[in-house]
Amino acid sequence: MTRTTSRTRETYHVGNLAPQLLSAAREMLEEVGPTKLSLRAVSERVGVSSTAAYHHYANRAELIGQLAAQGFRELGKVLAARGDHSGGMQKLRNASLAYFSFARGNPALYQLMFGPEFADCEMMPELRHARDDAFGELKQIIAELLARDIESVEVRRASLSSWSYIHGLASLVIHRVLHFPSGISDERFVDSTMEGFEHLFKATSSAPS
């Protein structure tokens, strides 16, 4: 009986084990955070040996790197689904809301994606590409809004400002530095912060030089 179980565990990797390991890692990430996430723990969650898991992920760094890449791909998709029939500012508003809702709905994954474990010089290529693609979706929205080439200086600067705003807002809420009022929707919350920008820009544009 023991021998049969052992053989089943060792040969399980020939199937679709890789996505199952990634799915289990994501579940554990939301439950216990990144520090307790290991290939051994994920293997036990799936019910296979750690030896089988190592056939798909060389180490913990590769596992969480693939998990973060998955997060950026999902983020890129929600940004891409911003509504092609909307006007420029509405697209930006829709993208900001989609970004904020994604972060709030996946807090542990979101923090992993932007965590200190992924120094730029050590970032795996697949993760870097997924991150750049997600940022590219935001740049495309800004390029349409400004009617500028996507690689122009204006678009790069405005995209960085936009990402900094929504990333900062999401992070403040996730870390509970900024109180998220009960009974208010993500939509209303994001709209209220964007209205704050409108007040600020009106004030600065009307101020004497």
Describe the protein:
The N and C termini lie far apart (84 Å). Helix 5 (60-80) packs across helix 7 (107-113), helix 5 (60-80) packs parallel to helix 8 (125-146) and helix 6 (88-105) crosses helix 10 (186-206). It is built from 10 helices and no strands. The protein has helices at 2-11, 17-32, 39-46, 50-54, 60-80, 88-105, 107-113, 125-146, 153-174, 186-206. The protein is elongated and about 70 Å long. The model is unreliable at 1-14 (pLDDT under 50). It folds into 2 domains: 1-57, Orthogonal Bundle (Arc Repressor Mutant, subunit A); 64-206, Tetracycline Repressor, domain 2, CATH 1.10.357. With 209 residues, the protein is an all-alpha fold.
CATH topology of the largest domain: Tetracycline Repressor, domain 2
Tell me, rounded to a whole number, the average pLDDT: 85
Oligomer: single chain
Radius of gyration (Å) = 21 Å
Outline the low-pLDDT stretches: 1-14
Task: Give the arrangement of secondary structure elements.
Blueprint: H1 2-11, H2 17-32, H3 39-46, H4 50-54, H5 60-80, H6 88-105, H7 107-113, H8 125-146, H9 153-174, H10 186-206
Highlighted features:
209 residues, mainly alpha, Arc Repressor Mutant, subunit A, 2 domains, 10 helices
Task: Summarize, please.
With about 210 residues, the chain is mainly alpha-helical. The chain has 10 helices and no strands. Helix 2 (about 15-30) crosses helix 3 (about 40-45) and helix 6 (about 90-105) crosses helix 10.
